[in-house]
Amino acid sequence: MQTSLTFTQNADLPVILDRLERSYGRATRHKRDAMRQLIFMVVAQGAAPSVGLAVFDRLQAVYPSWARLRDAEPRDLEALFIGLPDREKKARAIPEILKAIEAEHGELDLDHLAEMSTDAARIWLAALPGVSLSVASAVLAFSTLERPSLAVDRENVRPMRRLGLCPQGTPLSAVPREVMEGAPADWSGAQMASLSHGLGRLAATVCQRGKPACQRCPLMTLCPSSGHVAEVLAFPSAEARQAWAAKRSA
């Protein structure tokens, strides 16, 4: 359990990244601009990669401009989103996101993010309707912006907690900051994207809910929880979050 708020570089992170890349490869990035990556992330969230990509390609074919997609009827979008989880919610959210971008920025693009700091850009994106901090971080890391931004979700946060990459009680929204504070200062967006990708694959294959398959984990020798882990919740208790917040504000 962390008892200090002195944040120094975590010497294990470069080793963790190297082992994850050897086991699961580097993150594949499609070099989409930020707007395309944002809409793709909203569409594909929670879906199998092949399904999300197929639906996104279909969406672009039917709505070749952002203006047309902005004005689309949710029921028409929902009909295109066959096979996606939460398709009704996504069909409502996408026009709202585009309208909010135009209202805030004056244009249907995200070019202004290139002039903002990574933290400011993440906050700006996460203020859009239906856009989580995880999606905002992924847009920054996986788009042509290539920012060193860590995308964290309910799955890949589990190995982060078990590896001790963030203090106990850290809420999900604060995990990226905690992990990145321990990362080498010169890490690129590609390296952060690969860390997020590798931890996601680790969570899906060996670092599962309940009892993980520690003997098959490429990070076993680096993990303080290896071999004696209980379930680690993605969302800590209110008491744990309060304790974390008190340490942060001290």
TrEMBL record:
It comes from the Bacteria. Residues 50-205 form the HhH-GPD domain. The keyword Transmembrane helix applies. This is HhH-GPD domain-containing protein. Keywords: DNA damage, DNA repair, Glycosidase, Hydrolase, Iron, Iron-sulfur, Membrane, Metal-binding, Transmembrane, Transmembrane helix. Belongs to the Nth/MutY family. GO terms for molecular function: hydrolase activity, acting on glycosyl bonds; iron-sulfur cluster binding; metal ion binding. Its cofactor is [4Fe-4S] cluster. The chain crosses the membrane at residues 38-56, 123-145. One of its GO terms (biological process) is base-excision repair. InterPro entries: DNA_glycosylase, Endouclease-III_FeS-bd_BS, HhH-GPD_domain, HhH_base_excis_C. PROSITE patterns: ENDONUCLEASE_III_1. The lineage of its organism: Bacteria, Pseudomonadati, Pseudomonadota, Alphaproteobacteria, Parvularculales.
